[in-house]
Amino acid sequence: MKSPSSSIRDVLAANLKRERTRRGLSLSKLSQLSRIGKATLSQLESATGNPTIETVFSLSRALDVPISDLMDTRYSDAVTVVRAEETEVLSGAGVDLRALDRIEAGGVIMEVYDQQVRAGCEQHSLGHAGTEHTVVQSGMLLAEVDGRRVELGPGDYIAFDGRLPHTYAAPEGAVRSVLVLHYRSGHEKLKDPPH
């Protein structure tokens, strides 16, 4: 999702300013909508802030855009190879995300992430745009979505409306998973998450 020469800070700065301006929002109004301080937003737009998962997800929710609209520089090659050592990690309180790709087809946008929930940690989200899909690769993941707790092991899958408050936790050791976020083109709100 990013070119090797672009940092997460630079990409987020340009995309955040573009999306905020496109919607005619002041920094103050975006601060209210996202629950992020105006000074922090100013730093993010000037590429001097340190974005976290929580920040990016809050901005996605407030602007009602896919996360990749904030983080994407678009690959143009027919074959996309993403090397782990060349991909910046976006970290939060309990999760490290590596953006792998953004796919657009048939009126749907899908973002693919390598996700690691750190051992003994929890990652809380107030919600964000799109539908969230997670497939556990290794470890035991505890997911709580809108008050419903589910334990997931290797090969298990969960999907839900990303706008719902949710938490991922790894109480027994690190968890590796594939996270896919999907949105309708034009960022229309999804009515029913797949079952």
Automatic annotation (TrEMBL):
Keywords: DNA-binding. GO terms for molecular function: DNA binding; DNA-binding transcription factor activity. One of its GO terms (cellular component) is cytosol. SUPFAM superfamilies: lambda repressor-like DNA-binding domains, RmlC-like cupins. The keyword Thylakoid does not apply. Residues 16-70 form the HTH cro/C1-type domain. It comes from the Bacteria. InterPro entries: Cro/C1-type_HTH, Cupin_2, Lambda_DNA-bd_dom_sf, RmlC-like_jellyroll, RmlC_Cupin_sf, TransReg_Diox_bact_type. Gene3D superfamilies: Jelly Rolls (2.60.120.10), lambda repressor-like DNA-binding domains (1.10.260.40). This is XRE family transcriptional regulator. It comes from Streptomyces sulfonofaciens.
